[in-house]
Amino acid sequence: MEYDIRIGLEVHCELNTKSKMFCSCKNSFGDSPNENCCPVCTGLPGALPSLNKEAVKKAIKTGLALNCQINNNTYLDRKNYFYPDLPKAYQISQFYEPICQNGYLEILDNDIIKKIRIKEIHFEEDAGKLIHDRYDDLTLIDYNRCGVPLIEIVTMPDIENINQAKEFLDGIKLLLKYIGVSECKMEQGMLRCDVNVSVMEKGSETLGNRLEMKNINSFSAAIKAIEYEAKRQIEELRKGNKIISQTRKWDSINEKSVLMRDKEESADYRFFKEPDIPFIEIDDKIISEIKREIPILPFERFLTYTKKYNLSKDDAMTLIRDKEKSDFFDKCVLINNNYKIISNKIINDFAKISPEEFCRVIDFVNEGRISNSSVGKIFQEMEKNNISASDALDNLGLNQINDENYIEEIIKTVLEENEKAVEDFKNGKKNAVGFLIGQCMIKSKGKLNPQILNSMIYKIIEKGE
Amino acid sequence: MKELYKCKGFELASLLKKKEVSSKEILQSFINQIEKKEKFLSSYITLDLENALKKAEELDIKRIKGEDLSFLAGIPVAVKDNISTKGLLTTCGSKMLCNYIPVYDAFAVKCLKESEMIILGKTNMDEFAMGSTGENSYFGVTKNPRDIKKVAGGSSSGSAAAILSGEAPFSLGTDTGGSIRLPASYCGIVGLKPTYGAVSRNGLIPFASGYDVIGPMGRCVKDVSLLSQIIYKYDNKDMTCKNFNFDFSNLENYSLKGKKIAVIKELFNSNIISSDVLEKVNKALKIIENMGGIIEEISLPEIKDALWVYYIISSAQASSNLSKYDGIRFGFHPDEDSDIEKIRTNAFGTEVKRRIILGTYILSSSQYEKYYQRAVNMQNQLIEKLDKIFDKFDFIITPTSPRTAHEISEKVNNKNIYDEDICTVFASVTGIPSISLPCGVDSSDMPVGIEISSKKFSDHILLKMANALEKEIGFDNDIV
After folding, report:
1. Which regions of chain A carry the CATH code 1.10.10.410?
2. Are B364 and A268 inside 8 Å of each other by CB?
3. What kind of architecture, by CATH, is found in domain B4-231?
4. Are A447 and A401 in contact (CB under 8 A)?
5. Per-residue pLDDT for B165 more than 60?
6. Which residues on B lie below 8 Å from A269 (Cβ)?
7. Do B329 and A49 touch (CB under 8 A)?
8. B236 and chain A: CB distance < 8 Å anywhere?
9. What is the pLDDT of residues A395-436, one digit of tens each?
């Protein structure tokens, strides 16, 4: 029996707002424990949340970038559960009316475009951090992360294989960085994900029972967890066992999933509208303002780069992975159509100079005024001294001379001064020409265009003057 | 001159302004009364008299220096013990918070301090404001100063008793389903439940976040209006607080002529209200008619539904609000072996536990639609209905409580106890302002309260109306 797998992902992303979601404490990683805390984020009695507008805007921005509908009248809910890292004993989250719904992200699976549908994006606040390993008999709590704004991006179970999962996670990470809503530093826990895996008979329309895996702290672990879980479930089915809906925990050290709880034992979070925060009305004007701030997104850039500009997939992705470089490329191709050289030079020799000056250097190469290998040096010189391309060429003494009359004069002088070498050449000592070319270069301080010099010097010698 | 503790708040303020007395003298008079009365009444949980004296002396110096002071500067005030006071024990009337000292002031307390009022201490209350009688406090039952065998009403029991006994000229209470108005009615003083969102809840330890409001209590409408001026301020730390410009400056010369007043048929023509109470309220209605007001009977059968809406939503929210009390970071924690279960079992009183259990059940995913969702829908219908009523009417008048204060630990079953709130909860679930003022005494000489409600954010007009009526009723609420 062959099986199909279906994967749904829940990506948690910390938003890079200046302050926390419900108070004015700093949203920053790595400060000394409990430095960024106040009565609100430590849940002291009577403290009230004030919603961070920047977080709302960033959630809307994410929704728009993922082609979602924005909920014009949304609100927050309380998710009630007890855990030591959650001082209010409830998390302010969204359950009934998520801020964004029904979107999608396009990915490329073996050259085929696939849409992964986004079910919803909702708000959450992050919890504190429990530190278990510092002392044997103590657990320490750091509340700095309490109240850091998070969005959770929930997909439909549209992902059919490991490659698609990888492409989706890479794509979403890049997109979040592009729209500037998160730094996406995985090592700092800014992106986390839960994985849902189900397995069904090949060709079947009905999804198998769903397994949720939590506690996955990197995308590579997510991929491993999916591989493991799909394999485990298929083996169970082949043995004739049934798959029961469960929540499992990914053990990244032993690389296996372990049972957390069965569905019957699943927690009842007793969701209800957070009474401390009124409805959030989002008018269309704000939505269109935010829309205007969204740049062209990575997937669209990829299609343009590979189709319109004929870049290789690798080159296209290398550019796109670094938004600054990709933006730079987009500016350059408006003024210069040597797409391949531009992309090459950006990938290998990128410097902070203006696209106009950058393209001027590319022109110099095309015109043969400078050699390909000097480009990096020129960029650096331009960036360092904030000067134009031609000034950099001057500074570096790289201004190639292409003027044929001038080159001819130099050649004639050198030939006159080195009659013996000319005789040697005419007598069949072909490498004597190398000496003559060298002499021309010395005379011109190396600025002569080597190709022109080369072709001219033969002609002039052969004319026999 | 009569003794200072017998003066109304505004009288004290003008004596101070005329420099006929000092803040310290006023304070001392109230302290003497506290020392005399407190052992019988239990109006306070915590007193802060040393700081109060220090503050009074400072203010007297300021006054001598001729510094510009607010009208109520140097006047004592008592604060209900669920309103956070920085550095001063704030227990919510619960064993759970018997050692909790807030690190910040509630916004309303900040307002009091900015006006340089002098905080006497924290008043007794039903645990976490759950109760209508003042009997559910871990720190003992508050007694009614008029008859110490009787309850003072709750949950702001101490804030009402302190006013009537001359233990404080002003107090702050909180009202979730009637907790300011009921004790005001039982004690024969004036208590205002503001429009939800008119006074910041920041620092008010929540019971039901969607209904909780802080409000002023005093001997007369004028005092309540003066205290309103201090606490009705916009606070951007409370998202449910609206920036609204109330004008409390001109309380007098309000004419009731042509004002339309609705009385609710379902309350008046039923056996819910005791005949004693009904008689006194009807008498007040006659007075209103004589003043030119137009009384009209309306039908609002939903007033009974407001009770279950209130108990469902408030218990649900309470179960969430109170789940953070675990004794781990603050609050009751007897010994190292105590786990959360032990602590919560031990430190919450019966009524609080009852509502936590009820609220937890109501919110469970299998019951949510049946109870919580239905209650929210019903609440929205009620709000719409009241909006329509206020299109035609200026005020709604009801008794504040179906009965007057009863004997302490008189056996009342819970269903009945909850019914005591039938006149007050409709204003709570719809967020409208509502004031209780005394309109007479019953056959056992206990005060009867009349409750006037008006549309949202018309609190200043409500006070004018109450002030005009109070003058005509002429209820004698001398300190007892």
Report:
1. 404-463
2. yes
3. Alpha-Beta Complex (3.90)
4. yes
5. yes
6. 365
7. no
8. yes
9. 887 777 777 888 888 888 888 888 888 888 888 888 888 888
